[in-house]
Amino acid sequence: MKVIMAGGATGGHLYPALSIADKIRRRNPDAEILFIGAKKEVGAGIVERNGYEIRYIDARGFNRKNLARNVGVMKDLIISGGQIRKLLSDFKPDFVIGTGGYVCGPVVREAKRKHIKTFIHEQNVIPGMANKLAEKYADKVFVAFEESKKYFRNQDKLIVTGNPVRRAFITAGAMRYRDKLGIDPADMALLVFGGSNGADRINEIVSDMLIGMKGEEDIEVFFITGAKMYDEIREKLSDAGVIKSGKIHVVKYTESIHEYFAAADLIIARSGALTISEIAVSARASILIPSPNVTGNHQYFNAKLLKDRGAAMIVDEGELTAESLMDEILRLKSNKAALNRMAEAAGTLGRSDAADIIYDHIIER
After folding, report:
1. Is 284:267 a contact under the CB 8 Å cutoff?
2. Domains defined for the chain, CATH in brackets
């Protein structure tokens, strides 16, 4: 079996692709899997560290704010067509699987023209533009949520699968990560992160909040800042004497975030599709702060899925303050029953079999 995976630029597209690839490799150890990504794409190193080969094409996303800058984008699109055709001819895949992003559409389109079986997977409640355009070239369209179906035209192609999450999240519940991370059994463990690159506003508010909560000695915080603001925040918290307590841990980046998920009582995060799927499969309570800087406000609709089922709170970034965030944390800390109900509700939404469902449909004859 030979498979091409296309998608990326962000972890939200890349990690589902890796999860699908891992499933194919486990079920077919001899399978050959090739990723196609864009040159200078931030996720390229992640693919290679996970043991997969990647080839690059000239591709970048459209600039919706400044249309004049899209001249170069169109030029890359024309160039990439030839690059993709050569890759398909050389590799000769049995299947092509796209997981969104600006690489996905051209690869799926060219594969369809070569009569190669094609699939796409949409992670968000509201589909991205690339997958909406690629729908007509796909033999099947996998969606993470039932609510996504209304945004696609051909209902016969649609299969609700959930989001494929890394296997580590599925097996993490059996591990004693609180012990590994040295968390006092009596403490509330809090995980805060804003995505792989961090989120400036969340970083600023949370660092101010941590300075103001020195007296809360029974809260242990794991604060993943991303590389951009790590040094600044660590210095700020160090100068304020916060880190000396031993309860505040500032982390630049980790590929083992499943350990923190499994150890946490409460997660504060953005609401990208993969994040909410990982929260659900980990059965964790959460406070979600949707990014206001995404197309179609799709992070709000992702978060709303959890909120509507009692699994999460949503806080608008524009209304976020250090004081209000601390108040919500302390309220949940003092009401363990409410925290547990949120976690249980999240668990009912978790799908640990998404990659299996996708695999089974891919190999159908």
Report:
1. yes
2. 2-160 (3.40.50.2000), 169-348 (3.40.50.2000)
